[in-house]
Amino acid sequence: MRLRKMLTGLALFLTVLLLASEAVMHEAFRKPVDAPIAMTPNAEATADFWILLPGAYQLDLVFNAAQPHARQKLKSVLGQHGCWNSKSNSPCGEYLPYSIKWEVRSESEVITSGVGTELTRGGHLRIDSRGTGLGAVALPAGRLTLHAVAESPLPQLSNLSPRLVLSGGTGGAKTFQSPFVTYVWTFWALGRLALWYAAGLLWLAVALVWFRTEKRRQRDIEVSA
């Protein structure tokens, strides 16, 4: 009986710990904002969202690069992706100027703000989309609002489904400033599969011990009868 209680308690503790780490990692990689924005002069985009894990987030202007000839059009407007001319401090190749003014505010104050231009872009490239970085923002936990205005838009890319994406960055939880999240990331990344396997073995052991205990109890009842 004592062995069964100990194994059950250990299995419950490990399972709850693993589920908690999965929840933290899901939140770390979640995109709180994924809102469309029109590429017309003074077009506005507003999105209300929640932040559960405070820390550093990345704001990007993302385009759908899956359409035919989309990558060539993006290259002609945003410059050569992943290349930066350090001498002129500008993108490589041909590019057009643009300006996206944005701010993140709570109900009482502006948390952070900035202006994304062709000279401040970071950018990333995925299978179906290409993004241009608007800024890195440190956000507190709570209910916030993102407001953006396309002061100098890119109408040449209006048919590529432009949208504003706020995320934890390409590193997910590694970009957060919280030591707790860093520890959870290390725990989750290094031992996730092994710990889930261990949790499964523990529950199997609990089931076997429970089965043997019940079988022994039934035998004792039959003998006493």
List strands and helices in order, with pairings.
Blueprint: H1 2-29, E1 33-36, E2 43-51, E3 55-64, H2 70-78, E4 84-85, E5 90-91, E6 99-105, E7 110-117, E8 124-125, E9 129-139, E10 142-152, E11 163-167, H3 179-224
Antiparallel strand pairs: 1-11, 2-10, 3-9, 3-11, 4-5, 6-7, 6-10, 8-9
Helix pairs in contact: 1-3
Helix proportion:
25-40%
Shape: elongated
Return the string of H and E elements.
HEEEHEEEEEEEEH
Q: What is the CA–CA distance across the termini?
A: 23 Å
Please outline the major beta sheet: 5 strands, antiparallel
* CATH architecture descriptor name of the largest domain: Sandwich
Helix/strand class:
alpha+beta
Count, helices: 3
* Beta-strand content estimate: 25-35%
Q: What is the CATH C-level name of the largest domain?
A: Mainly Beta
Strand order, largest beta sheet: 1-11-3-9-8
CA-based gyration radius: 26 Å
Characterise this structure.
- The chain is of the alpha+beta class and 225 residues long.
- It has two domains: 2-21 and 181-224; 32-167, Sandwich (Jelly Rolls).
- The protein is built from three helices and eleven strands, in the order H-E-E-E-H-E-E-E-E-E-E-E-E-H.
- A five-stranded antiparallel β-sheet has the order 1-11-3-9-8, with helices on one face.
- Strand 6 (99-105) and strand 7 (110-117) form a beta hairpin.
- Helix 1 (2-29) runs antiparallel to helix 3 (179-224).
- The radius of gyration is 26 Å and the shape is elongated.
- The relative contact order is 0.23.
